[in-house]
Write a structure and sequence with these properties.
Strands 1-2 form a two-stranded antiparallel sheet. The protein is 73% helix and 2% strand. The longest helix is centred in the N-terminal third of the chain and has 28 residues, at 4-31. The protein has 19 helices and 2 strands. With 466 residues, it is mainly α.
Length: 466
């Protein structure tokens, strides 16, 4: 009975989701609702239900079962027979290409894994992606008159204004009710989170706002809940200066304004989640991508955005792995970034005289290996693994540089994803092998973000879970 009841609850939740979708589809057909309205109704219902998960189940495993079933259902609803004429039309009736259904489930899973009983770090990110995002989409669809373009379409100024307002209200209410943050910081944090989240939502594409919004809010809050007002102001000034500087340099790098902002946001989020030295290889990854695109342009449609999706995949994967196992994965996060950067550098070196190309690839591997070793040396002892990994790191970087040299045509398009799929499995395999054979260390003290070498925050009100 202990196993049966949670399992039945998970199955009931899936049935309820399908029932909501059927109801929305029925009302849409009777009242002529636009596809965007249908999609956002389902989005809000799903998000509100996800906010109850820590209280709904007494154990973690039913949540993972529920999320797995949800992903399976989302995949089935993408089948052609259901996508346009059946229940899938409530999610996929919009013309643009979107992975928002999968990414929302992924975001819920990562937040559930990382929040560790801290109310504001679980509820607020989900509230923003559920309520503020839906309000912005509906306002933009119904009342949008002024538009700005992004690579994947256009968004309305009115929608962004509504998003900012709703987000500001949500942040301030959540901070007042769920934390003991100073009242001055409530206002400052509210404005900063609302402005930052509005920019993330406006610059997201293909439904990635369902991932970047909640997780970006999570990392920003976790890093800044206890910050002094002057520190928050300084951070805002630095972020604004980085946006302005990179925006000015973007044309000379062949980047659009949208892509430039997304690159700055990605680095900012990494710096919010970990120490500055661990952002070196992600920055080198972005630099290698720009170098490769300038020297050998990609055939893919949005290469400057796809590289951010790859970086997000590596970042969130490493974070989730470290929290799930209790063994820090920072060294493997930076190594995976270095591997993709080595492959992109090799793409950039292609087309030159063989001797010049070989020299450039060798220099790139040496620089990336040195950066990885330096980064590992700067991290605290709890991040270090037993023994030395530099021979494996050298082999990985050299192998990644060799792939585009042997098969240059294979990396003419979708190169970021292909290189990530080549770099991540060996790094993940080594991580698993060391988990199985190396000495185990106790989990870091709560909250789990302390395992990243950042100070733990102690002014959160912990949820009365279980």
């Amino acid at each position: 009975m202990t196993v049966l009841l949670p399992l039945l609850t998970a199955l009931g939740a899936i049935a309820a989701l399908l029932g909501v979708m059927a109801g929305v589809r029925h009302l849409a057909q009777r009242r002529g609702w636009a596809p965007e309205v249908q999609r956002k109704f389902v989005h809000v219902a799903t998000g509100l239900f996800a906010m109850t998960l820590p209280w709904l189940f007494a154990e973690d495993w039913p949540v993972w079962v529920l999320l797995g079933l949800t992903l399976a259902v989302m995949a089935i609803l993408r089948l052609p027979a259901l996508r346009r004429g059946g229940l899938g039309a409530t999610l996929h009736g919009v013309e643009r290409r979107s992975y928002g259904d999968f990414l929302l489930a992924l975001a819920v899973g990562v937040l559930f894994l990382l929040h560790n009983g801290e109310a504001v770090l679980y509820l607020l990110p989900l509230a923003i992606v559920t309520l503020a995002d839906a309000a912005a989409a509906l306002a933009g669809s119904l009342y949008g008159r002024r538009f700005f373009t992004v690579e994947d379409g256009r968004k309305s100024v009115e929608g962004s204004a509504v998003f900012f307002t709703v987000c500001l209200l949500l942040v301030m209410v959540a901070l007042l009710l769920l934390t003991e943050v100073d009242r001055v910081n409530v206002v400052v944090l509210g404005l900063m989170v609302a402005a930052f989240a509005t920019m993330v939502e406006a610059d997201s594409w293909r439904g990635f706002d369902n991932l970047f919004l909640p997780l970006g809010t999570f990392f920003f809050l976790a890093a800044n809940l206890d910050a002094a007002p002057w520190a928050l102001f300084a951070q805002a000034v630095l972020f604004g200066a980085a946006l302005l500087t990179f925006g000015v340099l973007a044309p000379s790098l062949g980047l659009s304004g949208h892509a430039a902002r997304v690159h700055v946001i990605a680095v900012f989020l990494i710096l919010s989640a970990t120490q500055p030295q661990n952002a070196v290889l992600p920055v080198l990854l972005l630099a290698a991508h720009i170098w490769a695109r300038l020297c050998n342009p990609s055939t893919e449609r949005f290469p400057d955005l796809d590289i951010i999706a790859v970086l997000a995949l590596i970042s969130f994967g490493a974070m989730a792995a470290g929290d799930a196992t209790g063994k820090n994965a920072l060294s493997f996060f930076t190594l995976a970034c270095g591997g993709v950067a080595a492959g992109l550098s090799s793409v950039a070196a292609g087309g030159r005289h063989p001797a010049v190309a070989l020299a450039l690839r060798g220099v790139a591997v040496a620089v990336l290996l040195a950066a990885w070793l330096w980064t590992a040396g700067q991290n605290p002892p709890e991040v270090h693994w037993h023994g030395t990994l530099w021979p494996f790191a050298l082999a990985l970087l050299a192998g990644m540089a060799l792939l585009p040299a042997l098969r240059p045509a294979a990396f003419a398009g979708e190169r970021s994803l292909k290189l990530a799929l080549a770099a991540i499995p060996p790094v993940a395999l080594l991580y698993v092998l060391l988990l199985m054979t190396g000495p185990r260390r106790a989990r870091p003290p709560l909250p789990r973000r302390a395992s990243l070498g950042r100070p733990a925050h102690r002014r959160h009100r912990r949820l009365p879970l279980r």
